[in-house]
Write a structure and sequence with these properties.
With 423 residues, this protein is α+β, with helices and mostly antiparallel strands. The protein has helices at 3-16, 18-56, 85-94, 128-132, 145-149, 159-165, 211-217, 249-264, 279-322, 324-332, 337-372, 386-412, 416-420; strands at 61-65, 98-112, 117-125, 137-140, 154-157, 175-178, 181-189, 207-210, 238-243, 274-278. It folds into 2 domains: 3-53 and 285-420, no CATH class; 67-272, no CATH class. A hairpin with a 4-residue loop joins strand 2 (98-112) and strand 3 (117-125). Helix 3 packs across helix 8.
Length: 423
C-alpha cells in the first residue's frame, strides 16, 4: 500500500476518536515539556547559586581566629588566637601561593548625612579586598592604594546604605559623618544578589573605608562576654586571602596555617585554632547539590514521558481490539501482514511525533518567554539544555518504536477468519 494512502487512513482513524487521540498526545506533550522545563530550571538554579556565591568572592578564604585544640611547643591547649595586622603582613611575605590578602576590621557605628541617619556596619579593608570580594561601583570609584597609605577619610556605600542615607539624592562627593568623623563618599556599590555573608551582613547594607583610616578613627574594641579586652591595637576581625589559582587552593591554605601557626604557637593541623571559611569548597559542594537535583528532575521528567509512551501503547492496543473486523476485511480483500503493521506503526508514529514536536516547541518557547519576563528573585531563568532536548528526542524515538511495534505485530498476526468471527 502506498505511504500516502497509509497516511490518509491514519489521519482518518485518529479523527474518528478525537478526544482519545488528544488525551494520548497530551501525555507526550506534557512529558517533553517537563523534561525541558525541569532540567532547564535545575541548571538555572545551579547557575544562579554559583553567581550568588561569586558575589561573596572569587576563590577566597576568610580566616578567623579560634581556640587552640591541642598543646604545641610548651603552650597549653585552649588559648584564644587573635589575628592581627602583622599576621596579614606575614602571609604576604611568607605564603608565596597566596596572591592577595587583606586584614578586615568591622564595627557598627552611627552615620549621619544631611538628609538621614543610620547605624550600619563599617568595614575597614585594604584596596586589594575590593577585587577578590567582587566589589564593583555603580557610581564613583573604588578605594586606591593612595587612600590606604594616607588613611584618607573616604567611604564607599552599599546600595541599601546609599538609598537610606541619601534618599533620592546624589551621594558622590557628599560629606558623611561616621562615628563623629567627616568622611567623603567616593563610590556606591552595584546592587548584589548575595545569599551568604559573614560578619555584619550583606555588602548592600554596609560601608567600606580604608583600613588605616578606620583603625585610627574608630577601631573595634574586642572584649569577652564579661568586658575584658581580648586584643591589643592592631587586632583584626579576620583576614581574607586569595590563592594564586584554584589549582593550588588547598596548598595555599596550608601555607596560611603554617604562617599563622608559627606566629601564634599552634600546629598547622590544629583546625580549631584557625577557622577558615573556604568559599571554593563551598562552591563545589553547592554545585554537586544542584547537579544532583538537576539529574533527579531530568529522571522524573523522563519517567513522565515514558508513562506517556505507555499510554500510547495502551491506546493502540485498544484500537487493535476495536478494529479487529476492519483488519479481517482488509486481509480478506488482499492486504498483507506488512500493510497492517505499517498502518498501526504509522498511527503510533504520527501520534508521538506530532505530540513530541508540540511538546518541544512549548518547552523551548516557555524557557525563552521566561527569560523575557521579570521573575521573583528566588526563581531563576531556565536554561535550554541541549542534553535535555536530545534525551527527550531519543526517548521519543524509543516510545515510537515500542509503542507502535507490539500493537502492530499483534494486529498483523490475526487471521481473516479470526477477525471476521469477532462481534
Amino acid at each position: 500500500m502506498p505511504l500516502l494512502e497509509i497516511f490518509k487512513q491514519t489521519i482518518a482513524a485518529l479523527l474518528e476518536t478525537k478526544l482519545r487521540s488528544f488525551l494520548t498526545m497530551f501525555g507526550i506533550i506534557w512529558g517533553i515539556t517537563s523534561v525541558i522545563l525541569l532540567v532547564g530550571l535545575g541548571i538555572g538554579f545551579g547557575i544562579d547559586q554559583s553567581t550568588r556565591l561569586k558575589s561573596l568572592g572569587t576563590d577566597i578564604a576568610i580566616c578567623f581566629g579560634g581556640k587552640t585544640g591541642m598543646p604545641s611547643g610548651g603552650y597549653a591547649a585552649g588559648r584564644n588566637v587573635m589575628l592581627n595586622l602583622d599576621d596579614a603582613l606575614a602571609i604576604q611575605q611568607g605564603a608565596p601561593l597566596i596572591k592577595t590578602v587583606s586584614p578586615e576590621i568591622r564595627r557598627t557605628v552611627s552615620e549621619i548625612s544631611q538628609w538621614n541617619a543610620s547605624s550600619r556596619a563599617v568595614r575597614g579593608v585594604w584596596p586589594e579586598y575590593q577585587n577578590f570580594r567582587s566589589l564593583t561601583v555603580d557610581e564613583g570609584r573604588l578605594m586606591t592604594t593612595e587612600d590606604e597609605q594616607s588613611a584618607s577619610r573616604v567611604v564607599i556605600l552599599g546600595d541599601d546604605a546609599s538609598r537610606q542615607l541619601y534618599p533620592g539624592k546624589p551621594s558622590i562627593g557628599q560629606s558623611l559623618m561616621i562615628a563623629g568623623f567627616p568622611y567623603t563618599v567616593i563610590g556606591v556599590l552595584s546592587k548584589k544578589k548575595q545569599n551568604g555573608s559573614y560578619g555584619s551582613g550583606p555588602d548592600n547594607s554596609q560601608l567600606f573605608v580604608p583600613f588605616n583610616a578606620m583603625e585610627r578613627d574608630f577601631p573595634p574594641d574586642f572584649k569577652d562576654p564579661i568586658g575584658n579586652s581580648l586584643g591589643p591595637k592592631g587586632t583584626v576581625n579576620n583576614i581574607v586571602v586569595q590563592p594564586v589559582s584554584a589549582d593550588v587552593h588547598e596548598a595555599a591554605l596550608r601555607e596560611v596555617r603554617a604562617v599563622i601557626g608559627s606566629r601564634h604557637h599552634f600546629e598547622p593541623e590544629d583546625l580549631d585554632a584557625l577557622w577558615v571559611w573556604d568559599t571554593l569548597e563551598g562552591a563545589k559542594f553547592t554545585q554537586r547539590i544542584f547537579h544532583a537535583m538537576t539529574v533527579f528532575f531530568g529522571i522524573v521528567a523522563l519517567l513522565t514521558l515514558a508513562l506517556g509512551g505507555i499510554g500510547v501503547m495502551n491506546i493502540m492496543l485498544v484500537a487493535v481490539s476495536e478494529r479487529t473486523r476492519e483488519i479481517g476485511v482488509r486481509k480478506a480483500l488482499g492486504a498483507t501482514a506488512v500493510d497492517i503493521r505499517r498502518q498501526f506503526i504509522a498511527e503510533s508514529a504520527i501520534i508521538t511525533l506530532v505530540s513530541g514536536t508540540l511538546g518541544l516547541c512549548i518547552g523551548v518557547g516557555t524557557c525563552l518567554l521566561m527569560k523575557l519576563v521579570p521573575l521573583p528573585d528566588f526563581i531563576p531563568h531556565p536554561v535550554i539544555s541541549t542534553t535535555a532536548v536530545v534525551a527527550s528526542l531519543v526517548t521519543l524515538a524509543l516510545i515510537t518504536f515500542f509503542a507502535g511495534t507490539y500493537p502492530a505485530m499483534r494486529a498483523s498476526s490475526l487471521t481473516p477468519m479470526e477477525c471476521l468471527r469477532t462481534d
